[in-house]
Write a structure and sequence with these properties.
Layout (H helix, E strand, L loop, with lengths): L3 E5 L7 H17 L3 E5 L16 E4 L10 H9 L8 H8 L1 H10 L7 E5 L3 H7 L11 E5 L9 E3 L2 H15 L1 E6 L4 E8 L2 E9 L7 H5 L6 E3 L6 H17 L5 E9 L2 E8 L9 H8 L4 H10 L6
Parallel strand pairs: 1-2, 1-3
Antiparallel strand pairs: 4-7, 5-6, 5-7, 8-9, 8-11, 9-10, 11-12
Length: about 300
């Protein structure tokens, strides 16, 4: 008998709309694969009802808080239902940009220099300007330490801009990451079940690869597949993405984001719940590598498990 798949999508995060698009695309592919499939939205119903569905596998199509930070994964484990993508700790650690940076540094994966501030110490930082001690130079990227899809990201050219951005963002997000801005090429790599399958280059028409550049067609972000780098460097970035996937103990599919500047790669983050919309990068990379969207979804389902 074909397995019964529950697609969990939507949720209450700032990425709800993207999650609904991901869920819709994956649901279509799951039906084509011949599985019995059902939709569940935690924003519309209690997660306690998941257990009542009596399904075999949960396809996690959530993005953002509660969906890719270990929270929903904890409930899947409690229900004892195999689920797709990464487990509790790996999801939590990848979503926490401070922790993942520490892991990258420990494993000698180059990442931009950074400073962490929170709602307790930010006033002291603003008053004393500790940037020089931390070797951060403008422009500086300021972003929430636990959001995805470039939500809340600001690029500050001077200390006045930085102070203003911090004051606005700290009220909503409580903890922020300040990071040296790295120029150069925007390179992203898809990893499926531990193997890097390709690297794509993005050339946004906007200031940087922000939320609109990622998800709005009219932003006209240019996608270059494969990334426009030489063979040696292409191989190197695939290896770096595979290492990031491994050291963060990820499962299923991930997408690691890099900047390539001065002949060096800098990892920005590893995403455990990459988008699966018509503008998403993982399906595009997979297609170039000979993996159809339907087979990509099949690979993700086959990798589902518990105690991940």
């Amino acid at each position: 008998m074909k397995k019964k798949i529950l697609i969990v999508q939507g949720g209450t995060s700032s990425e709800r709309e993207i999650s609904l698009r991901t869920g819709k695309a994956c649901h279509k592919a799951i039906k084509k694969l011949g599985y019995k499939s059902y939709i569940f939205d935690p924003a519309l119903d209690s997660v306690k009802k998941i257990k009542k569905h009596k399904i075999d596998v949960i396809f996690n199509a959530l993005h953002g808080r509660d969906g890719e930070d270990g929270v929903i994964q904890s409930y899947f484990e409690y229900c004892n239902i195999p689920y797709t993508h990464s487990g509790i700790l790996s999801s939590m650690n990848c979503m926490d940009k401070i922790y993942s940076k520490e892991v990258f540094i420990k494993n000698k994966i180059r990442t931009p220099k950074y400073l962490y501030i929170n709602s307790i110490n930010y006033l002291k930082f603003i008053k004393n300007n500790k940037l020089q001690k931390k070797f951060l130079k403008f422009p500086i990227v300021v972003k929430p330490s636990n959001e995805g899809s470039s939500v809340g990201v600001k690029i500050c050219k001077n200390f006045k801009d930085l102070k203003s951005s911090i004051k606005k963002l700290i009220k909503k997000y409580k903890s922020l990451l300040l990071e040296s801005f790295i120029g150069g090429q925007e390179i992203q790599v898809a990893v499926i079940n531990g193997k890097a399958i390709g690297a794509i280059e993005l050339r946004p028409k906007r200031k940087f690869y922000d939320y609109k550049a990622k998800y709005v067609k009219s932003a006209k972000t240019e996608h270059i597949m494969p990334a426009n780098i030489n063979k040696k460097k292409y191989k190197e970035v695939l290896q770096l993405a595979s290492r990031a996937h491994k050291v963060l103990n990820c499962s299923g599919v991930t997408r690691s984001d890099f900047k390539f500047y001065d002949n060096k790669f800098y990892i920005l983050e590893t995403n455990t719940q990459p988008g699966m919309t018509n503008l998403s990068l993982v399906p595009e990379i997979a297609k170039y590598s000979g993996i159809s969207f339907k087979n990509l979804v099949k690979k993700i389902i086959k990798n589902a498990g518990l105690n991940r």
